């Protein structure tokens, strides 16, 4: 059967659609270009070469401390958040009022970041908890938890619970059926939730800055430097590395998702 050639009107419509998509992509990604260009500002052989700004990152002890804090908090958030999200998703499947509980879990998404940060700071003060990596991690887990829950619930929705019933019939208890039957089927969702939580942790600024005390993460350090003295080529270089790392994590999520969809 011969497919008719598109008419001029159809070609014009397709051109408009692709033109609109191109404009949206430019709008989304054009702001990422200036930090990359400015990270190479003043680069010369006399100043240390093309990547002098990137090497200068390691000359700032405060920034190095912020990087280590970011890595440690990101690791905590990436490990704890998917576990909590999985427990919530399992509970939502078992309880009779999942919409109410899900609404409560998603509520932090609709609370302004400053309000949530101040509320958590007051809560920690009432409990007598000093600002630390713990308070910073808790705030970021609360921010990432709704997203991770949605990711895991989406994966669990495609799981056929008949397999669990079969495991029960064969004598497995609830934990054994989950561990040996369901978890292998939804583990890609856990990895996706962990990666998404890690990205949110890397990029979180407002809530963390309110409960950080005397510590910094990379994002809070960048924000304070921007507000007080402006950004140097080294900080633009750090921003570039963060952009690359975020895009790489997102690409990893896409790859994992596509592999899961393959037969």
From TrEMBL:
Chief location: membrane
Membrane topology: Multi-pass membrane protein
InterPro entries documented for this protein: Bact_Polyamine_Transport, MetI-like, MetI-like_sf
UniProt entry keywords in alphabetical sequence: Cell membrane, Membrane, Transmembrane, Transmembrane helix, Transport
A Pfam family hit: BPD_transp_1
GO biological process: one example: transmembrane transport
GO cellular component terms listed in the entry, alphabetical order: plasma membrane
Entry keyword annotation includes Transport: yes
Stretch forming the signal peptide: none
Keyword Membrane belongs to the record: yes
PROSITE patterns linked to this entry: ABC_TM1
Ranges where the ABC transmembrane type-1 domain occurs: 67-251
Lineage top rank: taxon: Bacteria
Transmembrane segments: 12-30, 67-88, 100-123, 143-164, 185-202, 234-256
UniProt-annotated location(s): Cell membrane
Family: Belongs to the binding-protein-dependent transport system permease family. CysTW subfamily.
Name the record gives this protein: ABC transmembrane type-1 domain-containing protein
Taxon lineage: Bacteria, Pseudomonadati, Pseudomonadota, Alphaproteobacteria, Hyphomicrobiales
């Amino acid at each position: 059967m011969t497919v008719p050639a598109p008419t001029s009107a159809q070609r014009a419509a397709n051109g408009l659609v692709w033109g609109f998509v191109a404009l949206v992509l430019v709008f989304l990604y054009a702001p990422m270009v200036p930090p990359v260009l400015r990270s190479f500002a003043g680069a010369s052989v006399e100043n240390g070469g093309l990547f002098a700004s990137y090497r200068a990152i390691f000359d700032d002890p405060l920034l190095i401390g912020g990087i280590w804090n970011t890595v440690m908090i990101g690791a905590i958030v990436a490990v704890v958040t998917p576990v909590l999200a999985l427990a919530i998703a399992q509970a939502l499947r078992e309880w009779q009022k999942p919409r109410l509980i899900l609404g409560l879990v998603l509520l932090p998404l609709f609370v302004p970041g400053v309000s949530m940060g101040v509320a958590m700071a007051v809560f920690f003060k009432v409990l007598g908890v000093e600002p630390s990596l713990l308070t910073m991690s808790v705030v970021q887990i609360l921010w990432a938890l709704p997203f991770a829950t949605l990711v895991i619930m989406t994966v669990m929705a495609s799981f056929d619970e008949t397999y669990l019933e079969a495991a029960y019939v064969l004598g497995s208890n609830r934990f054994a059926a989950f561990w040996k039957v369901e978890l292998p089927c939804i583990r890609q969702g856990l990895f996706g939730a962990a990666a998404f939580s890690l990205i949110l942790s890397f990029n979180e600024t407002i809530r963390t800055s309110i409960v950080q005390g005397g510590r910094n993460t990379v994002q809070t350090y960048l924000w304070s430097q921007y507000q007080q003295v402006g950004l140097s080529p080294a900080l633009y270089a750090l921003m570039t590395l963060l952009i690359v790392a975020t895009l790489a994590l997102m690409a990893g999520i896409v790859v994992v998702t596509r592999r899961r969809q393959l037969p």
